[in-house]
Design a protein that fits this description.
- The protein is an all-alpha fold and 62 residues long.
- The radius of gyration is 15 Å and the shape is elongated.
- The termini are far apart.
């Protein structure tokens, strides 16, 4: 397991409250946005859309 994969595993194991506290201590707003983006991109359960139209169709169906 790479250091990066291990770091993601540790971060994923934190509760939302502890994760927020960790990020607040070590990151600025740009870093927080980057980390959230990477976590969403690596989430195999996240919805993926091929176009903005598909996204809006999904939002309209809810």
């Amino acid at each position: 397991m790479s250091t990066r994969e291990l770091a993601y595993h540790v971060v994923d194991s934190l509760s939302e409250e502890k994760l927020q506290a960790f990020i607040t201590l070590f990151a600025d707003e740009n870093e927080i946005a980057r980390m959230e983006t990477e976590m969403m991109a690596n989430d195999s359960n996240a919805l993926k859309f091929n176009s903005v139209e598909e996204l809006f169709e999904e939002l309209d169906s809810e």
